[in-house]
Fold this sequence. Notes:
Distance between the termini: 44 Å
CATH class of the largest domain: Alpha Beta
Radius of gyration: 24 Å
Shape: elongated
CATH superfamily of the largest domain: P-loop containing nucleotide triphosphate hydrolases
Order of helices and strands: EEEHEEHEHHHEHEHEEHHHEHEEHE
Strand order of the largest sheet: 6-7-8-3-9-10
CATH topology of the largest domain: Rossmann fold
CATH architecture of the largest domain: 3-Layer(aba) Sandwich
Number of domains: 2
Strand content: 25-35%
Number of helices: 12
Largest sheet: 6 strands, mixed
Number of strands: 14
Amino acid sequence: MIQLKQLSKTYGSKHKQTVALSDINVTIDRGEIFGIIGHSGAGKSTLLRSINLLERPTAGEVWIGDTNLTALSDVDLQGQRRKIGMIFQHFNLLSSATIFDNIAFPLRLVRTPKAEVEQKVDNLLKLVGLEEHRNKYPSQLSGGQKQRVGIARALANDPEVLLCDEATSALDPQTTQSILRLLLDINKQFGITIVLITHEMHVIQTICDTVAVIHDGRIVEQGPVTEVFLKPQHAVTRDFIREENESAELLDRLIASLPSNDHTEVVKINFLGTSTYQPILSEAVQATGVSFAILQGTIATMKDTPYGQLIVRFEGDKEAIAKTYEMLRTQVHELEVIG
């Protein structure tokens, strides 16, 4: 388990200071994938690098398991950092070393026996699907392949924690998905705790269990991805979700243009889990006689959890519409009247 307790980070002199992090309190469970999302300059990179003390906080504590990293000597901290792998946005590979040697580098730093290095690197090459590239150089690989090398290198010392610093932001969408699937497989296979930062909500939705939203150096919202995505509380979170939904502005204009009267209402219905695939809406309107039109709909998954979101316009007798809501609320995750 990772605990960040009242973490703060400031830069500059006493007369002119920049606050990068302010009173951060986060708990990350062992074996989960924890996402931190924020716009550029929000403080997410500083927060991530504070976990392994590449950025030493001005105040507060960083605990991994029973160890307070902020209280360690430099020598002891070096030993603890071997338990924390890190993947970088721009790969940070040694250009003059082969793929094999790039992955072997952290093992050789701690004087691992040669035979053990050979076996370990071969296993890691197989894990990331690069066996046939072991003797090539980084310049001969694609961006996605370079990132796979970075992942293999980060796993070389069998870390308990894997930090991902915008690991997919330099990649195209298809390659991004393949890297996210690899990280998900690694998490499931080895139980490694993964902490990643991103400015893309779809990355959070694809693999994360929990998310923290950071803005101006503060955590403004955090919780299970399903809850934060379907019921965002903070304006910044809502902005991220709207950015993912390219048709949101069009939908707002459509709702505003609809005729308003006592017999029509527009609602947002959220489904979660297996109910996503059930004919709940159809059965409800058949029972009440209310007419409806679907203005917008989405069915997808957040990690392994199915979810659906419908924007529906109901038309009919006011009591019949109320009865429809009553039936729906017993079976859906959330229903909200929005227009």
